[in-house]
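Provenance and format

Records in this collection were gathered into a single text stream. Each protein contributes a sequence line and a token line. The two records reproduced below are adjacent in the stream.
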Amino acid sequence: MGIKMKLTALAISILVISGCSNANSQSEEEMDHSKISDEEMDHSMMDMDGDMMEGHMSHDEVVSLNDSTGENELKIPSMLERDDEEGVVYTVRAQKGKTEIFDGIETTTYGYNGSFLGPMLRLEKGETVKIRTINELDENTTFHWHGLDVPADADGGPHDVIKPGEEKIIEFEVSQEAATLWFHPHPEGITAEQVYNGLAGLLYIEDDNSKSLGLPSDYGKNDIPLIFQDKLFDDEKQLNFIAAMNDDGTIGDTLLVNGTLNPKLTVDKEKVRLRLLNGSNARNFTFKLNTGDSFVQIATDGGFLNEPVVLKEVTLAPSERAEIIVDFSQMNSENDLALVNEDGSILLPFEVSNQSGAVSTIPGEMNDFSLTEEEMELPVTKKVELFGMMDQVTINGKKFDSERIDFTQQQGVTEVWEIYNKPDEMGGMIHPFHIHGTQFKIISRNGEAPPENERGWKDSISIEPDERVKIAVKFNNKGVYMFHCHILEHEDNGMMGQVKVE
């Protein structure tokens, strides 16, 4: 295949995103790339030259998000009620439906136990959990529990396909500490589209420590889940993934938070805990307050930090999470307050009431996470090289093969993995790297200790071009687990490998 043909899909997608194309309303025949003339193709490639092409690939200059007008109160995901039947704790259904994202317009969407996104499932450390998963879609799917330390046959990777109309019950013991996790589909080749259409939900783990810290914990009141996703809607206000899709990661200009368009969050004058999830296909977010005020980060992907870290901003790549606390009792509520992105785009305006809220604390000590001297001195035993763009992405020069085991590792044994993001002629792009079935520790970034707010359990890590990261990895369960780039289109294009734990 020539370079011109390889770049055609990217050209189409960039034109869509920049508003220069009506591809969203085209028919399948019109979207057939083989019917594009050489003149149109050359013009598209010229448009991709320079900043636009390199900007998207590096994710440095992607299309900006429209500011939230704050006209709609933020929706809070419901807490899923527990079942009593046959020892099943939860039943989760993947469904297709219609959602009124825009006033008076129904958008076709996917959801869990509803038409769009999903509920929050709360688990307790030490309990044995049964979850019944049911596929009510008209296509294959899986249920992947992102960040959960779970046996491989319950992980929901691409091997665990559930066909339309089928169901599966998984059972496991909750063995890890309190954390904010999430769940989403992971079928081979179509993960990006299913997540984009709305399949994502939250999974909370609580333990004795989390209950004793005195942190804000009133769900939906001062303990707020925030699922950030950017979308591109067509002229009919539909999520036309085929038209919007970009092989280097689908980027949109419209932000939804918990599925809410133009959201605002009304809070009392109190400390408010925000559980941030970057649930986007590809966009990175740098969260900060428009006033320049500081906030406190208390948790990473997999649990609490040892001590709170005061920050002005925090950056999350796709699938990363962070828990932060904003003290609205100490902020001037006469000013416009909002959570904004790095470029100043308004993500979530805040409306502060005149009422004082609950009294909560931010303890000086929250966890006993440690990176031992022994772990730091372990030799590198696994090397992972991330490389490429579009549909030419690879790990260690290979694309995913479900019949190939890339690594083996012994159950309960800690090894050091070194992940290298190899740059290309144009510099390369950030790759968020995720390992299934475990939480890991960051040893170093380019030989230096990680920043304070990354010194906690992680399951995903953002890696810059030409950056080397060392992580300490231990699997508590046996089986085959995925590791991959969490730009979902890269994952679908084969930027994924398998580790067998024996």
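Adjacent record:
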Amino acid sequence: MGHPHQQQQGWAPDYDAADQRRTQYRPSPSQSQYFDSDAQDRTPPDDDDFYQTGPGGPEAYQAPTRSIATQSVRAPSPPPAPILDHSHLRPGAQAALLSHERTLELYRANARKTQDPDLQFELAVFMIDASKTYPIPAPTPGNVVQVEKALEKRDDLIKEAVLLLKRIADRGHMNAQYFLADCYANGIGTHKGRQDFDRAFPLFILAAKHGHPDASYRAGTCCENGWGCRRESAKAVQFYRKAAAASHPGALYRLGIAELNGELGLSKRPKEGVKWLKRSAEHATAEFPHALHELALLHERGIDNVVFVDYEYAAELLAQAAELGYAPSAYRLGECYEYGKMGCPQDAALSIHYYNIAAQQSHRDACFALTAWYLVGSPGVLPQSDTEAFLWAKKAADAGLAKAMYAVGYFLEVGIGTAPNHQEASSWYKRAADLGDKRAAQRLRGNAPAAGAQGANSVSVLGRGEDDAASGGGRKDKDCVIM
């Protein structure tokens, strides 16, 4: 189980970029409300004649039809004679890892020798990927110039990539149109890193016209939310339906929710909404697992004459979403196996497994659930550790969970998993009290029982499971310690 405060350090270029095109800048549905569409781009003028348009023009290029968001797209292999060898980029016993600079120069040399837009697109994607993990030294008074040079070099990579993307996008390269729009939408290659939907939206439209499913979906989100265009629900539905025709799981999910709730100007038709959700679940990906989770919730409570209650099927759907890495589903399964809900047996190993999947993605309730498990441990599954309990509680508290803030304050007051620190404990109590935690307010007023033996006072510090106890759930040996 990973330590909550471990972070990867250093930088290692991704040498699989020649075989994998990733679009990691797409906002998830839950983050969309935070976008800022007032940005302006300040990229340099298109005055570099390094890359020349091929003699065939836009009509000569036939773009791939597959989405680069949900699967790998393999560009056609270039003619072997004029193009430098790419074998070092492919996995295998004889693979050689070149330096980042050498690999970049190899891509550039290949781009000079061919007018293949796929190869040029590959170079642009590699440069964007490299810019994300480009090593920037920690600023100190003595390395100001070094930091500035590193930032400048990173910005130059982005500018070169954006310039190249613009050129091949203008030639009708569908994936370049979408990728460039995605960059603009996420503040890559824009003025001060601000999201620029004024530039992104027209490119989404162009790629959608070429049949790019992700572009159709993103155009729909723009029309729904008014990013770079007027807010038009009817147009959003039109783009969502176009993406859904290509089985885009995000578009299928959005249409399902709209039909369930009567949104986007659609009538409330739960039966049709469930049909959309089922199609989305069939095509679920790590990026769009939401329909699996929603269907699980529907089968947990049921809808009259539409969805019947089926706990076993609901748990199966949650497991599918959890294996795709969806934190809310993993957390829900952790609860099911901890308390024996939805027909699941009480199983410490499975509970901890699913909590850990969610906690590794900073799901605050899952982090706090691991606090409870570490506080008492589970024989043969998880060793008891006050230190880990404190660290997971602090991670949940840092994420804004009030009851975790109270727990951190208590651990600091009593000295559980950390050295006692009454001043810091009071600070955490105040933060919890400000969010409405009554126990923290009592501690601050001095009305709570004095802190005594750690075992005696850890009985109710976590404040978890009250609802489950009322509904008949329980944890046997764990109840007497942390509930």
